[in-house]
Amino acid sequence: MPIMPRPAGDDRAGLPVTACRLSPRTVATNARLRYRRAMSYDIRLATEADLEQFAEIVNHYIENTTINFHVRPLSEDDWEATWQVLHERYPFLVATEGDLVKGIAWASPWKLRGAYDWTAEVSVYVRNGHEGQGIGRDLCSRMLEIMDEQGYHAIVAVIALPNEASVALHQSLGFELGGTLKRLGYKNGQWRDVSYWQRLHANADDSAPPPLKLVSEVAG
Hints:
The protein has helices spanning 24-38, 51-64, 76-86, 135-150, 164-172, 215-218; strands at 42-45, 92-97, 100-109, 119-126, 154-160, 176-187, 190-200. Strand 2 (92-97) and strand 3 (100-109) form a beta hairpin. By secondary structure, it is an alpha+beta fold. The chain is built from six helices and seven strands; from the N terminus they run αβααβββαβαββα. The protein has a seven-stranded mixed sheet, with helices on both faces.
């Protein structure tokens, strides 16, 4: 599970909306669309000043959906605590139009044990009302470019079900289903299944991995 900020008194784990991998075909498609999309938003590394909008975006999904397993809203302070711990090693991205953050993406540790250091989980959220513009896909593309350069071996996506759009997105982007755990979380009066998806680095092999690079070493 990702390390997500937790409001005081909330001991339940959170789940991401989506995390994704781009196949070569999708990379080519995005290249053709990049010029059109670049006119409506920019993608950059998140800063501390963006964290209030992180909370705004994710809290919509916490309060109105079952695709995030938090049951209480997250504050800007929650996000700042998480960002301070993770952002040097795990990318945090925003898609912006002027001062408005239209979408966010971040990576987090898969597990807090040393052997998992080269595996991470990616989460992506689009601001309510701004879906359908390719924001989530473009955030994922940039995120994975950075993480590939850093040297991550595997990226994991966790999807709380039902979420047909996210499942379809991951399938289209080359993720492979690792399995589904039944009745893993209880929210809004129902038990929810959770599916696990995996994307390996294109050059992944059985050799020992080199040390990971910091985000600042590969992305400005």
